[in-house]
Amino acid sequence: MQITLEHISKRFQRHWIFKDINYSFSTPQAYALLGNNGSGKSTLLRIIAGMQSPSLGKLLYDNNGPIAADAIFDHISFCAPGMEIVEELTLREFFDFHFSFKKPLPGFTIDKIIELTSLKDAENKPIGDYSSGMKQRVKLAQAIFADTPVLLLDEPCSNLDQQGVDQYRAWIEEYGKNRLVIVASNDPREYFFCREQIKVEEYK
What we know:
The chain has 5 helices and 9 strands; from the N terminus they run βββαβββαααβαββ. It has one domain: Rossmann fold (3-Layer(aba) Sandwich), CATH 3.40.50. Helices cover 26% and strands 28% of the residues.
């Protein structure tokens, strides 16, 4: 899988968040988008995911052949602290729903995913009753355990205690292999495995 950015720029009203980013992301490799709060790293990640449009420039997606922008969803998993999950559903209901349109990794079942989240005791409770750290584990699980070649993570350790951070690190080391992983972060614990680093603030 390859994602190519050509002259990607983003402006909010008259203020340019970043300008003229030219870069190619390829499988299998892990990349970190770095920058202070407000630098535009989360915005850039959403543009890469096809969730937001650039003000200028274009993105090219290729997986042994070009992929249309409106078809990229099938190839990408995304996790961010502010993303919506259906909190009226129980954990099992949510995973049943999510993995009905996003295949889990080979050999994975809903039972196995619930076990890996360490949330089995709460699997029949509405997600709305979960703590912020528990909800973040759910968001990470729905992304990491989906069978997609691209994994996009925005501040993945938000709201996690040390046990949750350790769990994230173990998941990434085990299930991030042979994928294109892009992490937007300013916390080294979140991008410790990323060999390539892009400082968004350099594109002003």
